[in-house]
Amino acid sequence: MKQQEIERKFLVTGDGWRGLGEAVLFRQGYIARTQDRTVRVRVAGEKGFLTIKYRGEGIARSEFEYDIPLEEAQALLDGLAPGEIIEKLRYTFACEGSVWEVDEFLGANQGLIVAEIELDAEDQAFSRPPWLGEEVSKVSRYLNVELSRLPYTAWNREEQRGEK
């Protein structure tokens, strides 16, 4: 199903979000990527998904996501090199009138925690919880597809602190 995805992404600076949602393990990798589109396979908990994303204007993207059998999703992930797979714990919860997803990355991206909010419009107002840090919606290295190429632990310390 086609859908317009408009999400804003932030670094997380505090622990005030902890305990607000249950962790679900996500494993995902990219079976195709170009400058303006990606094809991702994901296992989220006990469900498999195939997602196609096209870059749009600003932070908006077109997204097509399909449920696929768990065994097929796992087989597609097994065909990728281990370094190409992103693992993270995702916590989804309502906070201050909005639904937030906080991703706590594991493996080669350990130490990175980001929060995302999906909006109906790029300029939609929302309340900022106190644990939100710098917005990184337009910083490409924080995209999951880029983290699969150059993981967070490979960044230098200034990049990890958001100074570059």
CATH superfamily: Hypothetical Protein Pfu-838710-001
Order of adjacent strands in the largest pleated sheet: 1-5-4-3-2-6-7-8
Pattern of helices and strands = EEEEEHEEEEHH
Count of domain modules: 1
Largest sheet: 8 strands, antiparallel, barrel
Strand content: over 45%
Briefly note the CATH topology name: Hypothetical Protein Pfu-838710-001
Q: How many helices does DSSP assign?
A: 3
Whole-angstrom Rg:
15 Å
Q: What class do helices, strands and sheet pairing give?
A: mainly beta
**What's the overall average pLDDT, rounded?**
90
The 3D shape can be described as: globular
In which range does the helix fraction lie?
Answer: 10-25%
CATH architectural type? Beta Barrel
Q: Which stretches of 5+ consecutive residues score pLDDT under 50?
A: none
CATH class reads: Mainly Beta
Distance from N terminus to C terminus (CA atoms, Å) equals 37 Å
**Strand segment tally:** 9
Task: Describe it.
The chain is mostly beta strands and 164 residues long. The chain has one domain (2-160): Beta Barrel (Hypothetical Protein Pfu-838710-001). The chain contains three helices and nine strands, in the order E-E-E-E-E-H-E-E-E-E-H-H. The protein has helices at residues 70-78, 144-149, 157-160, and strands spanning 2-12, 23-33, 37-44, 47-55, 60-68, 86-95, 98-105, 113-118, 132-135. It has an eight-stranded antiparallel β-barrel with strand order 1-5-4-3-2-6-7-8. The longest helix is centred in the middle third of the chain and has 9 residues, at 70-78. The model has no long low-confidence stretch (mean pLDDT 90).
